[in-house]
Design goal:
This protein has 107 residues and is α/β, with parallel strands linked by helices. The protein is 50% helix and 12% strand. The protein is built from five helices and three strands, in the order H-H-E-H-E-H-E-H. The chain has a three-stranded parallel β-sheet, sandwiched between helices. The longest helix is centred in the N-terminal third of the chain and has 11 residues. It is globular.
Length: 107
């Protein structure tokens, strides 16, 4: 649901969007094309946002400053991760205007 909302919202704003419903697909896309921004949830099955960040930091470090995390998780562990990495983030529920402002700051 969140992915579709993001895709539709960003496409309506004129962004070219490539969505991925699995981490494997996202990683392939990131290796094949260059993106201005990467938006990822923190909590995902198998390959979560933390693992994605570590992957990018090692293999595609130019994306580290371009990642925006979305999460409903306000646990101490998640807050520590976000602070430690310096990543941009937004808590769910997603506010369209705040999301667009965040994207403009990151890109």
């Amino acid at each position: 649901v969140t992915r579709r909302f993001l895709e539709q919202t960003l496409e309506r704003e004129g962004y070219l969007v490539a969505g991925a419903n699995h981490a494997d697909r996202a990683v392939r896309l990131l290796q094949e094309k260059d993106f201005d921004i990467v938006i990822s949830d923190i909590r995902m099955p198998d390959f979560d946002g933390r693992m994605l960040f570590r992957f990018l930091a090692v293999l595609l470090p130019h994306y580290v400053s371009r990642i925006v995390f979305l999460t409903a998780d306000r646990s101490e562990e998640t807050l520590h991760f976000l602070q430690e990495t310096g990543s941009s983030y937004m808590f769910k529920p997603i506010d369209k205007q705040q999301l667009l402002a965040l994207i403009n700051r990151v890109k």
